[in-house]
Automatic annotation (TrEMBL):
Signal peptide: none annotated. Belongs to the binding-protein-dependent transport system permease family. CysTW subfamily. SUPFAM superfamilies: MetI-like. It is a multi-pass membrane protein. GO terms for cellular component: plasma membrane. The chain crosses the membrane at residues 20-40, 52-76, 82-105, 126-146, 152-176, 188-207. This is Methionine ABC transporter permease. Its main location: membrane. The lineage of its organism: Bacteria, Bacillati, Bacillota, Bacilli, Bacillales. Gene3D superfamilies: MetI-like.
Length: 220
């Protein structure tokens, strides 16, 4: 084990956490809007709009069908336009956010569909407007499921950062490729894999704990 191992791991971990945090935030904002639109505009939804539902659904499916490594390359011009460069963790956030948002949108859609139709109808019967139904019925009732879905999405984004590392995004993925593989540093390769596994376990445990707490609070 060489002296620079812990320094390299720490730097790679910080870059990965930076990418995961910001990408998860932006993906959550975009994905939440997409998921809500899909639910409320479907047939029988509170703002039924088959055309909009079809357009959004097709857009989500189209983006999700593109392999992430190819999507990164396609979004490089956008990263350069927004960030001013295509290299580094900040530039990777653009691709990570756009790549994860449709995936998260579908998760949020499925979570919101778990809400009892009776509760939505009850809100409609007292004259609640669609916006209020979304904020006071759909989201609160689906919150435990939403947290579980978001946990899956954050884990997926963490895995995406490793792929993004192949094209200069930085982070643990880049460390594993540049040092572990290309320079034959088995100590870095093994340590990087272990750190990623530990990070994902922490994310999963945290998400499960939050979801369980919300569920227990709801039915207490």
């Amino acid at each position: 084990m060489r002296d620079d191992l812990f320094e390299l791991l720490w730097e790679g971990l910080l870059e990965t956490l930076y990418m995961v945090a910001w990408s998860s935030l932006f993906a959550l904002l975009i994905g939440t809007v997409l998921g809500i639109i899909l639910v409320v505009t479907e047939k029988g939804g509170i703002i039924e709009s088959p055309v909009l539902h079809k357009v959004i659904g097709t857009l989500i499916n189209s983006v999700r069908s593109i392999p992430f490594i190819i999507l990164i390359v396609l979004l490089l011009p956008l990263s350069r336009l927004i960030i001013g460069t295509t290299l580094g963790p900040t530039a990777a956030i653009v691709s990570l956010s756009i790549g994860a948002a449709p995936f998260l949108g579908r998760i949020i859609e499925n979570s919101l569909k778990e809400v009892s139709a009776g509760k939505i109808e009850a809100a409609k019967s007292v004259g609640a407007p669609p916006f209020m139904i979304i904020l006071q019925v759909l989201i609160p009732e689906a919150l435990p499921a939403l947290v579980r879905g978001m946990t899956i999405a954050v884990i997926a984004i963490t895995e995406f950062t490793a792929v993004a590392g192949a094209i200069g995004a930085g982070g643990l993925g880049s460390l594993a490729i540049r040092f572990g593989y290309q320079r034959f540093r088995e100590d870095i390769l093994i340590a990087t894999v272990l750190v990623i596994i530990l990070l994902i376990q922490i994310i999963q445990w945290s998400g499960d704990w939050i979801s369980k707490s919300l569920y227990n609070k709801r039915f207490k």
